[in-house]
Amino acid sequence: MTKLTALIIVFIALSSYTTPTSAHLRIRDPPTRRSPESSYYNQHKCISNNLASPVGFQGKFPYPCRGFARGPALKTWTAGQQIKVEIDPNANHHGGHCELAISYDEKNFAVVYQAFDRCLANCVTGNRAGCTITATLPASLPASKNAILAWSWIAREGNREYFHGCSDIEIKTTKKAKRAAKKGYTGKKMLVANYPGYPTIFEFNNTYNGAELYKRQPSITIAPSKNEKAAKITASAGGCPLPAFDMGDVSKLPKKLPVPNTPCKGNEPARCLHPEDPGLNGLLFIACDGTSWQQGSLSGGLKCVETEKGMMGYSLSAGDLKDDNNYN
Ligand SMILES: *[C@@H]1O[C@H](CO)[C@@H](O)[C@H](O)[C@H]1NC(C)=O
Predict the structure, then answer these.
(1) Omega within 30 of 0 (cis) for the link into 30
(2) Mutate which of 16, 117, 154, 202 to test ligand 1's pocket (most atoms within 8 Å of Cβ)?
(3) Ligand 1 in contact with 186 (CB < 6 A)?
């Protein structure tokens, strides 16, 4: 490598260097799986103290639903009603893109609410309104005792991460809405990004925020399965394991690194640049923004780790999970 290229790389890394934070945002109400606010999860000693970390944090908490087993519905809503989803304030990174989605099977999440650019930018301690998302549940959502509300958030600034949590809810329908609900609810498929195997949305600026990826999402129709039985409630006392996902086999990645600004498809894995170097270079990565390969950098305190599904940020400081009740 010439001195000049080395200098350019160092410059790119420094120009988007941001301060590390260990906690970000998470849903407070309706209580998520393993929520510290829920008496059910408290009784079962099944609390996660890392709910505000991104999915995939330290190879744990996979998408969807952070890998947590389904619990009882802790909130009942009626299709067509206005709902309030309250977020627990913490580092808000000047906001970002938010989605709320509903699922009946934990696989297909159909969007019921979107806010772009500055979603939760005013979510700070003491500003409850700024931490509250108000939405209307579509009237055509079929009733179910085992529905899931999912929230996702991609921050404007900072590490490229995907924040996501699931709350088990019951959905009721009014007599009037029952006919519309027969066909199921059709909405956009919830976007997953900044997670291994999915496209990367880079830090937003005046001309770019990655929102076109949301627009390109296909529509899906969701409905409870016809012979839906009461969902198995597995978050029982003593059975509260912490899920981890398979990090994959690096040797399956193509040997050559992608070239910046050349075309790519969204599903190509993001790669670390010089992953073996724990210093500055280990913070750099190259990822597909849905159209072309772009270089980016992780903020301090994180390291690039490559998996066959793509790169992920990994905390340099061990022990972040030590205070998670599930981690022992
Ligand atoms: C905005 O961000 C995109 C994606 O990282 C980048 O390609 C572009 O050069 C940036 N534009 C400006 C003006 O910084």
Answers:
(1) yes
(2) 202
(3) no
pLDDT in tens, 122-161: 999 999 999 999 999 999 999 999 999 999 999 999 989 9
* Higher per-residue pLDDT: 147 or 328: 147
Cα(226) to ligand 1 centroid in Å equals 47
Beta carbon of 179 within 6 Å of any ligand 1 atom? no
Question: Ligand 1 within 6 A of 205 CB?
Answer: yes
Q: C-alpha angle with apex 58: 53 to 60, nearest 5 degrees?
A: 80
Q: How far apart are CA 306 and CA 163, in angstroms?
A: 20
CA gap 54, 26 in Å, rounded? 9
Tens digit of each residue's pLDDT (9 = 90 or more) over 80-105: 999 999 999 999 999 999 999 999 99
Amino acid letter, residue 139: A
State residue 328's pLDDT score: 33
- CB 207 less than 6 A from any atom of ligand 1: yes
Q: Which CATH class is domain 20-222?
A: mainly beta
Q: How far is the CA of 189 from the centre of ligand 1 (A)?
A: 26
Interatomic CA distance for residues 75 and 168, integer angstroms = 7
The C-alpha atoms of residue 290 and residue 308 are separated, in whole angstroms, by 19
Counting beta carbons within 10 angstroms of the beta carbon of residue 184, is it exposed (0 to 12), middle (13 to 18) or buried (19 or more)? Answer: middle
Q: Six-digit token pair at 45? A: 């000693």
Nearest CA to ligand 1 atom 4: 202
**What is the domain partition of the chain in residue ranges?**
20-222
Give the pair of three-digit tokens for residue 152.
């996702």
Per-residue burial over 263-284, b if 16 or more Cβ lie within 10 Å, else e, is ebeeeebbbbbbbeeeeebbbb
Ligand 1 atom with the smallest distance to the CA of 203 is: 5
Going by the DSSP 8-state scheme, the letter that residue 58 receives in this structure is G
96, burial (CB in 10 Å: exposed 0-12, middle 13-18, buried 19+): buried
CB of 15 shorter than 6 A to ligand 1: no
